[in-house]
Specification:
- The chain is an alpha+beta fold.
- Helices cover 33% and strands 23% of the residues.
- The protein is built from 5 helices and 9 strands, in the order H-E-E-E-E-E-H-E-H-E-H-E-E-H.
- It has helices spanning 2-13, 69-81, 102-125, 140-143, 191-206, and strands at residues 20-21, 35-37, 47-48, 57-60, 65-66, 90-100, 133-137, 167-176, 179-187.
- The strands form 2 sheets. Strands 2, 3, 4, 6, 7, 8 and 9 form a 7-stranded mixed sheet that branches. The chain has a two-stranded parallel sheet with strand order 1-5.
- Strand 8 (167-176) and strand 9 form a beta hairpin.
- The N and C termini lie far apart (59 Å).
Length: 211
């Protein structure tokens, strides 16, 4: 019973946890790469959206893993771009992740409401656990906070996520040697896998046409 209550609480709140250690091979090789972090301070911090209409959405902290999302981006950029002819000048305007648990939370809570602990377990069993990922290039207007609030960045269309699976949504805007790219990645994969997909797609866009 206690485990079930804890599960429901985590699904609803997206509770903070100790950073998960991630092994990144040869990460020390990119220590010298200078990254100008121009992000708004809150983008690296976790935060729940508390209004009723914002149910099931929150901002994911940069340090849920160690090394952080920004440090991994720095290293992947080094792997893809560093060479003797090219000096990296990397500016990060946005690198932020949102979590949308709305569909999963609703199924668990509905099950709990209808059938108590057993119903919650049944509701969790109905959650879509299949993994998928999709990425796209966006413009700055797409990223701007709408009048409805920041939580709207954590929303998706029916076409993107027809079963309402829990997803991470990454927005990345960076500039390398004066070339700018803005991308969005939606993924139901575990956080680190979703992050790697987002970074890979972003760097592909950012490096098109570069020597």
């Amino acid at each position: 019973m206690r485990n079930l209550v804890f599960l429901v609480a985590v699904l609803i709140c997206g509770c903070a946890q100790t950073p998960k250690l991630v092994e990144v091979v040869d990460i020390e090789k990119s220590n010298a790469v200078v990254v100008e972090d121009l992000r708004p301070a809150k983008e690296s911090q976790g935060g729940k959206f508390m209004a009723l209409h914002e149910f099931g959405t929150f901002r994911v902290a940069d340090n849920v893993i160690s090394p952080s999302a920004l440090r991994i981006f720095q290293h992947r950029a080094f792997e893809r771009l560093a060479n003797e002819q090219m000096q990296l000048n990397l500016k990060v305007h946005h690198l932020v992740c949102y979590r949308n648990n709305r569909g999963d939370d609703a199924r668990v809570l509905l099950g709990a409401g209808l059938g108590g602990p057993i119903g919650a377990i049944v509701g969790y069993a109905l959650v879509d656990h299949r993994h998928f990922s999709s990425s796209s290039v966006v413009d700055s207007q797409t990223f701007e906070i709408s009048q409805a609030g920041e939580y709207t960045r954590a929303l998706y269309s029916k076409e993107e996520n027809s079963n309402g699976a829990a997803v991470y949504i990454f927005y990345i805007e960076t500039e390398i040697n004066e070339k700018l790219a803005i991308t969005r990645t939606l993924s139901s994969k575990p956080y680190i896998d979703a992050l790697e997909d987002a970074i890979q797609f972003h760097l592909e866009q950012l490096t098109k046409g570069l020597p």
